[in-house]
């Protein structure tokens, strides 16, 4: 979908939400839901940061690290991609205390989501680095650059652009996964929704608003990543290189 | 806290029973997803004017959390007088959610069929239905089977969300064991290992399937 | 030139890919400031010669010497052992290469392409690197385009930037790997002109793999004809092109000249 369609959908969603929020049957839920949405955004942003850091580190470790580091990174990626996000969340929340490690729920949430998405992210990073043409490496060699210099100055900047769309998808997955933290008692948007539903049973207004709010957040992420991609490839997409 | 092997063997039967529920939910959910997804993809082609509306709905389903959709279906149906048990509501929600993803996979599969196939069918005066059934679908499906397989695995890994509406699958059972015995380590770790094992096995199967399909297509 | 040590020496060098021998016991000396063209059919191993010298490929047998020092090996306790990366980089600094597909860095302007390696590898200050790059871009006739990205330049312009980029590292030996083969015919001339200029004004040792027979004839000091991984015939261009001694050379030249 083009950026224009996405922005159109975003505007429509925001308008519908605003209109509904003004109706008597809906407006009473809005303040609490917004508070929940704030926590959702906090967790999503922090979790995304963790995911990016881990994803890049794991990818570099798997591609260029010494054997034990490579093995460790591979285990991390396979375990966190191969098991369920909720299982990972519950494991960190319920099992770590049994080993005497006490972390608050918020940190557990950010860690679990970051670890989970970071594992998928490392595959995205690896794929992007591998997609940079071999000729770029050869040009770096011909200029007598070291491998670290080549990676830092030539390869990674180009890989970065290729990474943006898949990372955008991962950020959206992370945003959706934040709903899981409601199951470890964090008062995010999903928790508020469930809580208010249990007390008032006004399922349709509550969940309609909630679905719209997630849609708005999702669209913001998608549009943001598209704009980032445009800016990052500023010099590249005009005309063609050999 | 050391691992209690006696306890582990005690709880295995319960977890095994729950694993059956998980697998059931997975297969039923995927059956819904694969079928509904195909219907939606075909509807796009058969009724071109609906394409825009379908896109919006698909985007809505894909952009919002499955957990919310599960809650929504579970609590909304009674409002219309339909009493669904948690398992049915949950499996339905998962099915619809993944149908949105599957419909995009089918769509890509259909887009990959060269225009010429459609045109040849018209030239032979085949009906749209026959064209779809005998010409297009048989060519479109094999290349996308691995992608569908990946969604099957993803769906499988999301079944623990059903624990939120108290379906007695693996995660819920593990939590109950934990809250009754105050030993969470063994049950949750076992559940994690089960998912990991199934995940690795299915990844290998999908890889093998991909190779087999590549050979059949004789590229 | 004969009493100085050669600039480059291939000492019985072989390269194999599995069962396929690409270069078979190559022995070749290149003198200081000599301009050598390498011609031959595809698969004859010509590009491999360049790639091995630029350390883009490893060698299976033999030793490559650059200015009297081994490139692929290093001296330890009076013996030759395979070189480590630090040693390779030290010797490799004397060699530069221009590629058929240019390989410019797409996310950098022409100027940035040219200052990148001098700054990161040679530790040059930015101002100095920019001054040098400006001079080189002027030499290749592209001062106006110094702030343009590769995607905004024609093939010929990109290749000229690539040459300037290589020169910025002041190599003693320049390798040209079919640098005009990917260009539209009308753009070939401008690149050949730059190479001529380089050859005239600087004391560069140049090794060129090329299909441009006219250019090879007019510009080179020596031409090597490769066939099936070995040098079939070599000599001054007038001799090799005018009166080839070997039947295969004659066949190749006839086929090439016929194709125009």
Question: Could you explain how this protein is built, in words?
Answer:
The complex is a heterotrimer of chains A (242), B (219) and C (260). Chain A is built from 10 helices and no strands. Chain A is an all-alpha fold and 242 residues long. Chain A has a single domain, classed as MetI-like fold (Orthogonal Bundle), CATH 1.10.3720. Chain B has a single domain, classed as MetI-like fold (Orthogonal Bundle), CATH 1.10.3720.10. Chain B has 8 helices and no strands. Chain C has 9 helices and 12 strands. Chain C is of the alpha/beta class. Helix content of chain C is 37%, strand content 26%. In chain C, the strands form 3 sheets. Chain C has a 6-stranded mixed sheet, sandwiched between helices. Chain C has a domain at 104-170.
Q: Assign the CATH class of chain B.
A: Mainly Alpha
Q: Give the termini distance of chain B in whole angstroms.
A: 56 Å
Query: N-to-C terminal Cα separation of chain A, in Å?
Result: 29 Å
Q: How many separate helices of chain A?
A: 10
Ranges of chain B where pLDDT stays below 50 over 5 or more residues in a row are none
What would you call the structural class of chain A? mainly alpha
Based on DSSP secondary structure assignment, what is the total number of beta strands of chain B?
Answer: 0
Question: What gyration radius of chain B follows from the Cα positions, in whole Å?
Answer: 21 Å
Helix share, percent of chain A: over 70%
Strand content of chain B: under 5%
Summarize the structure.
Chain B has 219 residues and is mostly helical.
């Amino acid at each position: 979908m083009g950026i224009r369609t996405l922005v159109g959908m975003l505007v429509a969603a925001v308008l519908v939400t605003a209109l509904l929020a003004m109706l008597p049957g809906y407006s009473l839920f809005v303040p609490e839901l917004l508070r929940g949405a704030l926590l959702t955004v906090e967790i999503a942003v922090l979790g995304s940061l963790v995911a990016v850091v881990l994803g890049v580190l794991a990818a570099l470790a798997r591609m260029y690290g010494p054997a034990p580091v490579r093995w460790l990174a591979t285990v991390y990626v396979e375990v966190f991609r191969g098991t369920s996000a909720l299982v990972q969340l519950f494991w960190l929340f319920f099992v770590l205390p049994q080993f005497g490690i006490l972390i608050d729920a918020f940190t557990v949430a950010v860690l679990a989501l970051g670890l989970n998405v970071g594992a998928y992210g490392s595959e995205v990073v690896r794929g992007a680095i591998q997609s940079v043409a071999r000729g770029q490496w050869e040009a770096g060699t011909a200029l007598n650059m070291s491998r670290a210099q080549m990676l830092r100055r030539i390869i990674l900047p180009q890989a970065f652009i290729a990474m943006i769309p898949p990372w955008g998808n991962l950020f959206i997955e992370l945003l959706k996964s934040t709903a899981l933290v409601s199951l470890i008692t964090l008062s995010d948007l999903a928790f508020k929704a469930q809580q208010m539903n249990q007390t008032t049973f006004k399922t349709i207004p509550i969940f309609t608003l909630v679905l719209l709010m997630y849609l708005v957040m999702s669209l913001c992420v998608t549009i943001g990543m598209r704009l980032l991609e445009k800016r990052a490839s500023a010099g590249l997409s005009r005309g063609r290189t050999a | 806290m050391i691992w209690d092997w006696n306890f582990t063997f005690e709880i295995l039967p319960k977890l095994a029973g729950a694993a059956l529920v998980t697998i059931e939910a997975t297969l039923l959910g995927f059956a819904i997803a694969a079928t509904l997804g195909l219907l939606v993809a075909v509807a796009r082609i058969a009724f071109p004017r609906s394409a825009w509306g379908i896109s919006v709905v698909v985007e809505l389903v894909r952009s919002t959390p499955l957990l919310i959709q599960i809650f929504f279906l579970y609590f909304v149906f009674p409002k219309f007088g339909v009493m669904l048990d948690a398992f049915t509501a949950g499996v339905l929600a998962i099915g619809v959610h993944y149908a949105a993803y599957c419909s995009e996979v089918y769509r890509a599969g259909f887009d990959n069929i060269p225009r010429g196939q459609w045109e040849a069918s018209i030239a032979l005066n085949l009906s749209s239905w026959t064209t779809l059934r005998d010409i297009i679908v048989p060519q479109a499906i094999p290349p996308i089977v691995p992608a569908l397989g990946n969604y099957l695995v993803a769906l499988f890994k999301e079944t623990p969300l059903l624990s939120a509406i108290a379906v007695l699958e693996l995660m819920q059972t593990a939590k109950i064991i934990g809250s009754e015995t105050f030993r969470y380590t063994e049950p949750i770790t076992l559940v994690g290992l089960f998912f990991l094992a199934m995940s690795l096995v299915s990844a290998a199967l999908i890889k093998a399937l991909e190779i087999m399909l590549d050979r059949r297509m004789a590229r | 030139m004969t009493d100085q040590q050669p600039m480059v020496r291939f000492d019985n060098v072989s390269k194999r890919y599995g069962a396929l021998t690409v270069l078979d016991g190559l022995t070749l000396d290149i003198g200081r400031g000599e301009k050598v063209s390498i011609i031959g059919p595809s698969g004859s191993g010509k590009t491999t010669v360049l790639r091995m010298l630029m350390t883009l490929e490893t060698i299976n047998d033999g030793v490559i010497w650059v200015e009297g020092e081994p490139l692929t090996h290093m001296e330890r306790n009076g013996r030759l052992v395979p070189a480590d990366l630090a040693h390779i980089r030290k010797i490799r600094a004397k060699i530069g290469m221009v590629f058929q597909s240019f390989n410019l860095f797409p996310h950098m302007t022409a100027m940035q392409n040219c200052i990148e390696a001098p700054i990161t590898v040679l530790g040059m200050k930015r101002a100095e690197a920019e001054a040098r790059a400006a001079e080189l871009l002027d030499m290749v006739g592209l001062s106006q385009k110094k702030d343009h990205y590769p995607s905004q330049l024609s093939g010929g312009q990109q290749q000229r930037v690539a040459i300037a980029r290589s020169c910025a590292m002041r190599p003693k030996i320049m390798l040209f790997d079919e640098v005009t083969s990917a260009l539209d015919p009308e753009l070939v001339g401008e690149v050949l002109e730059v190479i001529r200029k380089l050859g005239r004004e600087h004391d560069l040792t140049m090794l060129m793999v090329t299909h441009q027979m006219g250019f090879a004839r007019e510009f080179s000091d020596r031409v090597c004809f490769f066939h099936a991984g070995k040098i079939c015939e070599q000599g001054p261009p007038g001799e090799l092109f005018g009166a080839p001694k070997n039947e295969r050379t004659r066949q190749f030249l006839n086929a090439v000249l016929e194709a125009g």
